């Protein structure tokens, strides 16, 4: 079976934008089982020598009775369990958010290969300050990306390449 790569991160960090970006550029695209799951979208991506399945953990609906933290935790933990490889997105507009910490710790504890990315890194003047802020938390490897503009995509996949 192809390795499963999960895209994790808080709501609005750009997970779905990244999912579509990785699917959209010169890849052979297969959407797996469309409509089977409401909460997660799967696709098979082939790019040069790499082939993997990708899961977008978006689509969670936040109702008033669902504290944000709990919903994030549930989707993140499920994806963490089923995935072989992990991409964790931070948001350059927000900086390191305390809500990131629990998932980051679980990713570390899982021992699964992971890459951390600071998405929305499309304002160069702030980028170096932000990257320093994230490095403080010891997340590594850490890559600035812009899913919207397709920046840093090769650098993002490079740490996972040995497994793809
Ligand atoms: P998700 O909730 O994590 O799936 O986030 P989405 O992919 O739905 O994106 C949330 C918002 O962030 C949308 O308005 C996107 O257009 C925007 N966004 C995503 N990636 C980028 C990026 O690289 N740069 C900028 N400036 N905005 C982005
Ligand atoms: Mg989404």
Radius of gyration: 15 Å
CATH superfamily: P-loop containing nucleotide triphosphate hydrolases
Percent range for helical residues? 25-40%
SS class? alpha/beta
CATH class: Alpha Beta
Shape: globular
How many domains? The number is: 1
Q: Main sheet?
A: 7 strands, mixed
Write the CATH fold name.
Answer: Rossmann fold
Q: What's the number of helices?
A: 5
In the sheet with the most strands, the strands line up as: 2-3-4-1-5-6-7
Ligand set: guanosine-5'-diphosphate, magnesium ion
List the helices and strands in order.
EHEEEHEHEHEH
Beta-strand segment tally: 7
Q: Which regions are unreliable across 5 or more consecutive residues at pLDDT < 50?
A: 34-38, 59-64
Please report the distance between the alpha carbons of the first and last residues.
11 Å
Mean pLDDT: 81
CATH structural architecture: 3-Layer(aba) Sandwich
Assess the beta-strand content as a share of residues: 15-25%
């Amino acid at each position: 079976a192809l390795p499963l790569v999960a895209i994790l991160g808080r709501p609005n960090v750009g997970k779905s934008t990244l999912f579509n970006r990785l699917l959209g550029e010169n890849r052979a695209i297969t959407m797996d089982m469309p409509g089977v799951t409401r909460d997660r979208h799967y696709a098979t991506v082939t790019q040069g020598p790499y082939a993997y399945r990708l899961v977008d953990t978006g689509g969670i609906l936040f109702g008033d009775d669902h504290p944000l933290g709990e919903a994030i935790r549930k989707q993140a933990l499920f994806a963490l369990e089923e995935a072989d490889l992990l991409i964790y997105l931070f948001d350059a507009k927000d900086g390191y958010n305390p809500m990131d910490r629990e998932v980051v710790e679980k990713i570390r504890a899982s021992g699964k290969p992971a890459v951390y990315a600071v998405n929305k890194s499309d304002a160069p003047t702030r980028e170096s300050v932000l990257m320093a802020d994230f490095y403080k938390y010891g997340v590594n490897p850490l890559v600035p990306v812009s899913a919207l503009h397709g920046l840093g995509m090769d650098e993002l996949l490079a740490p996972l390449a040995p497994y793809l």
